[in-house]
Amino acid sequence: MKINQIFAKYIDDRLLLEEFLACFKLKSLNDSSMFCINDLVNNKAVDKFNNNVCDRLMTYYLPCKAKIYLQQVTEQKLVTILRQIIRLFDYKLATVKKSKNKIKTIYYFIVNKNDEDSNRIHIHTYNAYKLNFD
Fold first, then answer.
1. pLDDT at 13
2. Per-residue pLDDT band at 130 (split at 50, 70, 90)
3. In this structure, are residues 39 and 106 in contact, taking their beta carbons and an 8 Å threshold?
4. Phi/psi zone of residue 25: left (φ > 0), alpha (ψ -120 to 50 degrees), beta?
5. Closest of 113, 90, 93 to residue 35, by C-alpha
6. 126, pLDDT greater than 70
7. 55, exposed or middle or buried, with CB in 10 Å at 0-12, 13-18, 19+?
8. Each residue of 80-123: pLDDT tens digit?
9. How far is CA 134 from CA 18, 116, 121, 129, 130, in A?
10. How do residues 16-65 score in pLDDT, each as one tens digit?
């Protein structure tokens, strides 16, 4: 049974999901902690993923997609895999760009798709102009 273009079946193993999120030092999908690529390098997230999660995660991916995403995993591919997995649970990965000492860093954090609109601040300004031709 195919769910979408990436996954063959839903990830129903809670322990697998928790171990995968632990690679990012996240406790659950509701954890709003921020991380960046440098954090993943320092935490050796790719090694944790390859040792603990990768083989079990292959059973959920379509075989052609598993070859693309789950082999030769880098930190950037790991972020892509996170995006794909949390999309199954109606979450998305949001980004914030921060600059420090003229170095731009992208920080990632998990957001619930349903709560995203309520967290935004909408500012609407309407200016009415009247145009007269004499």
1. 86
2. low
3. no
4. left
5. 93
6. no
7. exposed
8. 999 999 998 999 999 999 888 888 999 999 999 887 554 554 44
9. 71, 49, 42, 16, 13
10. 999 999 999 999 999 889 999 999 999 999 999 999 899 999 999 999 99
- Give the integer Cα–Cα distance in Å for 108 and 39: 11
At 99, list the tokens. Answer: 């600059």
If phi > 0 it is left, if psi is from -120 to 50 it is alpha, else beta; for residue 106 that is beta
Torsion over CA: 80, 44, 13, 117 (sign): negative
Spans of all domains in the chain: 14-119
Q: How far apart are the first and last CA of the chain?
A: 71
| Residue partners of 28: CB distance under 8 A and separation at least 6 | 18, 21
According to DSSP H, which parts of 1-134 are helical? 14-22, 37-42, 45-48, 54-57, 63-69, 75-87, 113-119
Tokens of 39: 């954090």
